[in-house]
Amino acid sequence: MKFVVPNIDPQILASLHSPSLVVFADQVRANIDRMIATAGSVDRLRPHCKTHKMAEVVRILLEKGVTRHKAATVAEIEMLADAGAKDISFAYNPVGPNIARVVELVRKYPDVKLFVTTDHPAPLRQLSAAVAAAGLSVGVMLDVDVGLHRTGIAPDSDAALQLYQAIEELDGLTPAGFHVYDGHQHQESLDERRAAVLSEWPKVLDLKARCEQAGLSVPELLCGGTPTFPVYAELNNPAILLSPGTGIFHDVGYGGHFQDLDFVPAAAVITRVISRPTPDRVTLDLGNKSVAADPPTGQRVYFPDLPTAAQVIHNEEHLVLETPDAEGFQPGDVLLGIPTHICPTSALHQDVAVIDHGKLVGSWDVTARNRRITI
Ligand SMILES: Cc1ncc(COP(=O)(O)O)c(C=O)c1O
């Protein structure tokens, strides 16, 4: 990965608030083109919107011909549907009041094909009762656990087949395939990642075969994230759809770890020096309410103009850098940083400034950062 961000005209930079997030629309389009090229066809992609949560990015995807989309929250589904998406996988098991929210989504967007996931019969039965009582129907994917052990059901278990059968039998529900997410596959080398993915894959194929022998249709295998979708893309299986998220903006966490990924940073944080408390310290207005704090302390953002500075304090509204180059910085100076983890960083910002081919073209709302839009 090239840890660089495009140059921003100094006058534009001076006008942008800090802390804030800027998105480079031309880089976003280039990353989407790379995703499509890796997938082999636009029809094999079902990108996850959790990275950007922005209707404007969904519109770019739709313009590029990406018709299938993936979400992790009810608000993301509303954002996608309002932006014009017609085929949405809610890759999250609805439980509790989210069951009624799913019914509401189906009612509000009758022309949207919506799928949810399941890995347990109890909420599945509740979903069936709620959907059927409303006279509606929804697709359900079996959430298959290929080793992440976060959600899902072991593909080589009898319970997996029984649960998929239950989807077919319960009112208002239709079997929609398997959800196969593998966020634990973090091998640096693509060869090792491929070997790890392929060692689990026969269990998925075997479950698919068992379901089909039982007369059940398995129309889709929804696989992978940014590090592994290139591996699934190599498999010649028409049921496979690919669900990368992060690559659309990319970040230092993935770019530093996975050298084979050819995405470029398309989002950066803008921050200013607010203090020089000691000769070797530069204090920025980039606290953990502006850049995601789930990476380890000291590694939450990368500054191309200060690559070796140590991040010694990270509070809610302050980031303190220690560097022998500190004397070159004065209060008011601007820095651009590439987040280590872009997805939760996007969600910290209400809107983003948008630069396209060097021009400031407006701002985009981070629509689905809210937990609730209307439903
Ligand atoms: C279920 C699911 N699918 C797809 C993705 C996208 O993965 P990535 O961010 O590696 O592109 C994620 C990421 O968290 C996820 O949880």
In short:
The chain is α/β, with parallel strands linked by helices and 375 residues long.
Describe the 3D structure.
With 375 residues, this protein is α/β, with parallel strands linked by helices. It has a domain at 25-248: Alanine racemase (TIM Barrel). The chain is 31% helix and 22% strand. The chain has 11 helices and 16 strands. Strand 12 (310-314) and strand 13 form a beta hairpin. Helix 5 (97-108) packs across helix 6 (121-133). The chain starts with 9 loop residues before the first helix and ends in a 10-residue tail after the last strand. Pyridoxal-5'-phosphate (PLP) binds next to loops.
Percent of residues in helices comes to 25-40%
The ligands found in this model are: pyridoxal-5'-phosphate
Q: Shape from CA axes? A: elongated
End-to-end span in angstroms? 39 Å
Name of the CATH architecture of the domain at 25-248: Alpha-Beta Barrel
Largest sheet: 9 strands, mixed
Reported by name, the CATH topology of the domain at 25-248 is TIM Barrel
β-strand amount:
15-25%
* Helix/strand class: alpha/beta
Mean pLDDT: 97
Q: Poorly predicted ranges (pLDDT <50, ≥5 residues)?
A: none
So, the CATH homologous superfamily of the domain at 25-248? Alanine racemase
Helix-strand blueprint:
Elements: H1 10-15, E1 20-24, H2 25-39, H3 55-63, E2 68-71, H4 74-82, E3 87-90, H5 97-108, E4 113-118, H6 121-133, E5 138-143, H7 158-169, E6 173-180, H8 190-213, E7 221-223, H9 229-233, E8 240-242, H10 252-257, E9 267-275, E10 281-284, E11 301-302, E12 310-314, E13 319-322, E14 334-339, H11 342-346, E15 351-356, E16 359-365
Parallel strand pairs: 1-15, 2-3, 3-4, 4-5, 5-6, 6-7, 7-8
Antiparallel strand pairs: 1-9, 9-10, 9-14, 10-13, 11-14, 12-13, 15-16
Helix pairs in contact: 5-6
Bound molecules: pyridoxal-5'-phosphate.
